[in-house]
Amino acid sequence: MKKTMTRLADGRELIYYDLRDDTVRDATDRRPLDPVSTASEIRHDRLLGDAVAVASHRQGRTYHPPADACPLCPSRDGRATEIPAADYDVAVFENRFPSLAGDTGRCEVVCFTSDHDASFADLTEEQAALVLEAWTDRTAELSQHPAVRQVFCFENRGAEIGVTLGHPHGQIYAYPFVTPRTERMLAQLAAHRDRTGGRNLFDDVLADERADGRRIVLDTEHWTAFVPYAAHWPYEVHLYPKRRVPDLLALGEAARTEFPQVYLEVLRRFDRIFVPGEPPTPYISAWHQAPLYAADRTEFALHLELFTVRRTSGKLKFLAGSESGMNVFINDVPPEAAAQRLREVASE
Question: Full-prediction pTM beyond 0.90?
């Protein structure tokens, strides 16, 4: 992998990750851009104890542009984009419309490929491995930011999820606090340790799923993918390395090498869940990493959670009264049935 760092016309950072060591990245951004102006503010909810980012400048962000005006495609044919180069493998840059900026953290865009019409599932194993390297490198860099407490790498895919740019890409949020979902995991981790005399919750969950077997989707030498016992979403898969590590930086070489094969297979199965001819399955794919300064961060287990809001062909799972109002999920698809379907659509 070769890493090249440069700047866009308005001063934002741009990083190229290339498969070839001899790749030269000397294209400059010649757009007449105004300096980025953000107004991100973190407000704390006194009743719930969580935080809300208020970012009014995001109202003007790019919204469903036609393919020939995509800002994530390479700059070609006289059309300048966020990527000055005429082609790229993986590119990461500071979001022009960030939810978090300055003292409130940082938001980055991760472009998985220069091919506008592709998806992550279309990548080769070599390309997927490069994305993993980019996620890992950005986690390391953002962890040094003085305001950052947690790094979150994720992908939103599909208009049903709320994606406004069709180009295959993900994002990285570097939060100035520990997110509520992670706080709950840490609390459960501590409670389980106290209740069991020192046992690790993540280890026990993984062991129990493998022993039960009904919800296992893939079980390889270094990774296990399963539908959780209490899955919130119609089709939801959790992917764990078999050796517990707190973050991407600590992921072992063997697991790192095997990850592209496993992850690409899971994504391709997601696209085969429903009837032929159905649009690509919308999903959210989210890496859960230990907070940077948690007292028991070494007990946290790095894992990826993948889920879709589509519950059956042509129908979506909406977060209505119970889910949105009380955070109590109602799942229409039994987790065992979801796992069985994901096994049925395995690659031949």
Answer: yes
